[in-house]
Each structure stands twice: as C-alpha cells, then as structure tokens.
Amino acid sequence: MLWYIRHLDKYEPEPWTHIAAAFVAGVLVTVPVYAVEVLLDQVVSFSGFMETVYVSFIVAAVTEETGKGIAAWAASWRRPEFNEVMDGIVYFGVTHMGFAVAENLVYVFLGGDIYTGILTALVRTTTAVPMHVIVGMIMGYHMGVVRFATTRREKVLHILEGWVLPVLLHGFYNLGSLNQDMALETLTDLIRYGFGTALLYAAVVALWMTLLPRVRRAQQASPFRPIAAYPLVAAEMPCPGCGAVYPQGARYCPNCGVRLGRGGAPAPR
C-alpha cells in the first residue's frame, strides 16, 4: 500500500526516506492519542446508542484525526520536497497508515484467543486500515491546497474541510464497526457479523470514491506534469486564484490547484 500511495505521485515521487519518516510519525502518535482517548472515555459517561455515538465521533474520530493530522504536519510541512498538492496526499496518507498499522497490531494482540485475533486481523486489515489511509489522503489533499493557497478565505475553508470531513467519515465508519463487537455463539450472531462486515467493505468503497476526484485534481494541478499533456496555447485570462498563466482547456490551475470553469473563469463553488 505504501508503494501505491507513492505511485499516485507519478510526476515527482517523494523520497522513500521522507515517506518512512511520515510512517514512523503515525506509529509514534498512537501513544498520546490512546492516552487522550482513555481520558475522554472516563470523563463522560453515556449509555446505549449515545455511548456508541460519543465513542465513535468524539473519543475515536476527533481524537485520532486531530492527532494524525498534527503528526503528518510535523513530519512534512517544513520539507522543501513538499512542493505540490499531491505531496499532501502522500505524506498525510502514509502517516495515517502508520497509525492504522500500529492500532491494528494492538487490536490483534489484545483480542484474547487466537481465533479472535486472526478474525480481527483479517477484517481490520481490509477495512480499518484502508479507512484510515483514505481519510488521511483526503485530509492531505486539503492541507496541500492550504499550503499553496493565496487567500485567507481559501486557507480557512480547506483547513475546515480537511479536518471536519475526515472526522465525519471516520465517525460514521466507527458506528458500523462498533456494532461488530459481539460474541459469535449462534448462527444468527454469525449472520449478523457477516452482514455488518459487508457494510464495512461497502463503506471503504464509498470512501475510495470520495477520494478519487481529489487525487485526479492534484495530479492535474501538478507543476511537474509534462508540458506535452497540456495544450500549448495559454489561456487569455490568468488564474483567478493566484494569477498564474495556465494552458487553454485546463480544469485546474497547475500552480495553486484552484478549479477553473470554462474559458478560465473561476468555477462555481
């Protein structure tokens, strides 16, 4: 999966050493994140469905996405190699992957018996780990736009979207996964578990579909994209976001990544 994330940055891939540093940052941040989650779990006491919502969105989603975002920022923001929007997708996605792998190992080894541990490993490796990576890449896209945005409004909007959207996606995923915490004692329990697992896989596919348009935008906006991929005639009007010149027919500014409408006009938001 690390190779695939780096492969998406097809015009100027990031150095493997920087990718390794981002991964390690994600692993290390699991310690303070876990401490905060334990504290939040003890401070407020709910029951029933409200407890599930509180744990899904506040204890898990808010804490983990905030912690992973800070770790990714610390590992990548000052690097001169972070020189396009796509790099945000790579660095933040890798950091989230490091967190997911560490968390997965904790769940597996604390699962109790061998059967439970193996089942947990199979399900989480193909659902929870991709979920963390995908929401991290979504966050990274918006943080990449923030890095190269020229207006305060654009920076604020993408900071909010880059944090709120991953929190919501992570929280709703947790709502489904927490309902999987059941004893498999009867055939009915097994059927319920299988149905719930199928929903988790469907959620991962939906997350991936949310990510793909952002990856395409970042790739199209890359300043390292070969010039042969663009028409050679410059547009009549400069980019409304940063003032840079861009080719006719471009959908996104190759300098700042802002979406362009027909004729170079800013696209409606």
TrEMBL record:
> Sorted alphabetically, which Pfam families does this protein's record hold?
PrsW-protease
The record's GO molecular-function terms, alphabetically, read: peptidase activity
Query: What cellular component GO annotations does this protein have?
Result: plasma membrane
Q: Which residues cross the membrane?
A: 20-40, 88-109, 156-173, 193-212
Q: Name one GO biological process term.
A: proteolysis
Q: Where in the cell is it found?
A: Cell membrane
Its membrane topology is listed as: Multi-pass membrane protein
Key words, A-Z:
Cell membrane, Hydrolase, Membrane, Protease, Transmembrane, Transmembrane helix
Return the InterPro entries for the record. Peptidase_PrsW_arch/bac (IPR023596), PrsW (IPR026898)
**Family that this chain belongs to:** Belongs to the protease PrsW family.
Q: What is this protein called?
A: Protease PrsW
UniProt source species? Symbiobacterium thermophilum
Q: What is the lineage of its organism?
A: Bacteria, Bacillati, Bacillota, Clostridia, Eubacteriales
